[in-house]
């Protein structure tokens, strides 16, 4: 089976490439604008000739290449359109022309945008595939448009497409200055496993399962995030007193956090629900908040081996003095 990974020099692209290359007889094309040990072709997803060459004989496409939220303040809106929309269109057209079996598109929970921002006193957002997206910036808008292109090519051309709306899995520091000043980075990430983070190993496995099941699904959109311990009835209190809810659902967290000098966020405003992905993709994520607690209790790092191997890549060649990247809402 021949596989094309776009964004093969990035976090997820490299992680996918590592797993696929470990399989006997793997045939991998890695496409990225930046060279890396996992990139076989240096080029753009918006370059039709380049994409056509890469797509020859391909059975499965993992389209992870994108401009991300960290690029919003440093790149033009047109650049987002060119990469995230035009690039996806170029790939879809080439996939149809080459009778690709399955196309997996890496989207983002950022498409939900302002739908995940309840006011103080309102319940936290219980975010499922039925939640109506309300993108708040050019990143979310272009990823949503790319999702719709995937849906169009399924409806009009019969291309089997699965869209995965991934939550945070990057190792870089949080872009929220207040959080960075008040919480240790490991503390922030541990808290996020309750509602908005996944380990890259689980994200990779969701992509591989999606490719395997794409033909049977035809088309689908799924949230990919760690399994939350919260329930819908927790949402009102969660957005006002998160600690009390965590104590109720995961009572062992208190002892672990006290031993580490960590603290819970005062409020949590959304919860990503992965139930549909687990059911339809046959996906069983390993890393969740309880896994983090157990690892910390054992004195181990609560991340996968592949997360360690891929490491931190950053999103810019430039180093910024005030945070991991400029923030522009």
UniProtKB/TrEMBL annotation:
* Ranges for domain NAD-dependent epimerase/dehydratase: 3-182
Q: Superkingdom, according to UniProt?
A: Bacteria
What Gene3D superfamilies does its record include? Answer: NAD(P)-binding Rossmann-like Domain (3.40.50.720)
For this protein, the record's SUPFAM superfamilies field holds:
NAD(P)-binding Rossmann-fold domains
Q: Which Pfam family, just one, is annotated for this protein?
A: Epimerase
Q: What is this protein called?
A: NAD(P)-dependent oxidoreductase
Species this protein is from: Exilibacterium tricleocarpae
């Amino acid at each position: 089976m021949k596989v094309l990974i776009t964004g093969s020099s990035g976090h997820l692209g490299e992680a996918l490439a590592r797993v696929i290359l470990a399989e006997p007889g793997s045939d991998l094309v890695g496409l990225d604008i930046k060279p890396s040990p996992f990139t076989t072709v240096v080029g753009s997803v918006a370059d039709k000739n380049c994409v056509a060459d890469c797509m020859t004989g391909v059975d499965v496409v993992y389209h992870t290449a994108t401009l991300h939220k960290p690029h919003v303040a440093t790149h033009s809106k047109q650049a987002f359109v060119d990469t995230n929309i035009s690039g996806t269109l170029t790939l879809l057209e080439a996939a149809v022309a080459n009778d690709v079996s399955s196309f997996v598109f890496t989207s983002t929970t950022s498409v939900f945008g302002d739908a995940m921002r309840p006011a103080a006193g309102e319940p936290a957002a219980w975010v499922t595939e039925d939640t109506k997206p309300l993108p708040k910036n050019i990143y979310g808008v272009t990823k949503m448009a790319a999702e719709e292109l995937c849906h169009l090519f399924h409806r009009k051309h019969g291309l089997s497409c699965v869209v995965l709306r991934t939550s945070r899995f990057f190792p870089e520091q949080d872009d929220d200055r207040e959080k960075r000043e008040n919480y240790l980075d490991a503390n922030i990430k541990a808290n996020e496993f309750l509602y908005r983070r996944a380990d890259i190993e689980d994200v990779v496995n969701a992509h591989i399962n999606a490719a395997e099941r794409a033909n049977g699904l035809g088309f689908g959109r799924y949230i990919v995030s760690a399994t939350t311990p919260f329930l819908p009835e927790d949402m009102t209190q969660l957005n006002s007193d998160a600690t009390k809810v965590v104590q109720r659902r995961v009572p062992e967290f208190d002892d672990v956090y006290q031993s580490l000098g960590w603290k819970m966020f005062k409020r949590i405003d959304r919860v990503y629900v992965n139930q549909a992905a687990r059911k339809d993709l046959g996906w069983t994520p390993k890393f969740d908040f309880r896994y983090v607690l157990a690892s910390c209790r054992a004195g181990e790092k609560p991340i996968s081996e592949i997360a360690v191997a891929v490491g931190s890549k950053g999103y810019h060649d430039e180093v910024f003095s005030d945070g991991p990247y400029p923030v522009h809402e």
